[in-house]
Amino acid sequence: MHVVILAEFATASGGAEKVALESARGLAEAGVQVTYIQAIAGKADPFLNHAGITRIELALPDIWSLGPVRGAVAGLWHRTAARRLAAALVGLPAGITCLHLHQWTRTFSPAIMPVLFGHGAPVVATLHDYFLACPNGVYYRFDRGEPCGLRPMSGACLAAPCDPRSPLHKVVRVARTGLLGRALAGRPLHVVHVCDASLGRIGGMLGHLPLTHHRIDNPVRPIVGETADPARGDAIAYVGRLTREKGADLVAAAARKAGLKALFVGAGPLEDELRAMPGVEVMGWRTPEEVWAILRHRARALAAPSRWFETGPLTVYEALAAGLPVVASDRSGAAEKVRHGETGFVVPPDAEALVPAFTALRDDGRAAAMGRAARQRWAEAPLDLSAHARCLVALYGSIGAGHSAASHHTEPLPPRSAQPA
Question: In Å, how far from its chain's centre is CA 312?
Fold first, then answer.
């Protein structure tokens, strides 16, 4: 089996890239031959250093480094990216099992879709967000600070001033979504959802495309070292970009009311606002090793109170694996992994709803028991690299068999109905 994984970066600068890297490593350790194609020039994570992984760098710039006009044009249809990808694919040996895409919004653009489908191998895309349907990618009204309820690309959607940056960015993103829809029209794309909520939500938005839907959890890289000790912690921890849609402000407000410190590992637009609040410590970005060294000794729980429909934030899974309770938003796909009242709490993304959960965790015995339960649940059904790789190998095998059978039909096949794997 030979699989091509495509991402725009080869470093774990975000959740999608991290999943791409870990998928590649897990597959290689399972004996699968992997070619990892990165679009943007830059260093590669050492995790890709494996005899079973071949890395190809297309040496493209991040489109937003080209300036606003050239960047917008490239974001709509990046011909250079398409040409370089086509040349890279031509150079690969015959018998590719499938092409698995993780990102296309920073440099690849919709222009790569005809290239991928023209190769002949089945095409798979993991949906880490909602960009396949929603222009701003997160199905969230930044102008209102609430999840969107509009049908993507409808008249109401086009008129909504929902973009986090500017109306001009909304115009560009709408155009890109339209071009993406055209590039995928009639082409049998397999999509992988990383949570049940995403499968139910975005699956209903894409009935106009011939998609086949599958469901596979994100992988979690093993956390080296001792398990967490939540009873010893003095703070509610938050890890990630400090934004309102991710609920960073809610953590600070609710922790203060619950009589606990709030510890933030990350940076973002709310950084100055958070630093000015009493009982708040902002540590900035840290390496993964530093993050978990800090959380093992400082955190009573990890909080992830996203206001938007987040799909599968990896920090939640990592916290549970490390034996740390989690307080998650009921809008987040990660809440599916939290047992309410046992391994943490699932609550609405509201400060008043978070306060009772944080207050309950002030009890040393309860915090310790939840941490043990989280670790035990993880041990019973780990979302580690080997488990993820087994799911992918099974998926690729079934897709390959179906693709081979379909290629022998003399008449075009109708679009397949969307069924979870």
Answer: 6
Residue 418 lies in a domain: no
Question: What's the angle, vertex CA 403, arms to CA 398 and CA 405, rounded to 5?
Answer: 100
Over the stretch 107-150, which tens digit does the pLDDT of each residue have?
Answer: 999 999 999 999 999 999 999 999 999 999 999 999 999 999 99
Judged against a pLDDT cut of 60, whether residue 412 lies above it is answered with no
Q: Are 388 and 32 in contact (CB under 8 A)?
A: no
Say how many domains are in the chain. 2
Task: Please report the beta strands in 257-333, taking only residues with DSSP state E, as ranges in sequence order.
Answer: 261-265, 280-282, 299-304, 326-329
- Planar angle of CA 383, 389, 394, nearest 5 degrees: 115
pTM, whole model, 2 decimals? 0.92
Give the DSSP H or E segment for 75. Answer: helix 68-76
Task: Count the alpha carbons within 13 Å of 121 in the hemisphere toward its beta carbon.
Answer: 22
Give the whole-angstrom CA distance, residue 122 versus residue 192: 13
Q: Are 391 and 355 found together in one domain?
A: no
**CA pair distance 367, 372, nearest whole angstrom:** 9
Helix (H) / strand (E) element for 24: namely: helix 15-29
pLDDT > 80? residue 413: no
User: Structural domain of residue 197, as residue ranges?
Assistant: 2-219+387-406
Considering the domain architecture, whether residues 102 and 196 belong to the same structural domain is answered as yes
Whether residue 202 is found in the same domain as residue 100: yes
- CATH number reported for the structural domain that contains residue 32 in this entry: 3.40.50.2000
What number of residues does the chain have? 421
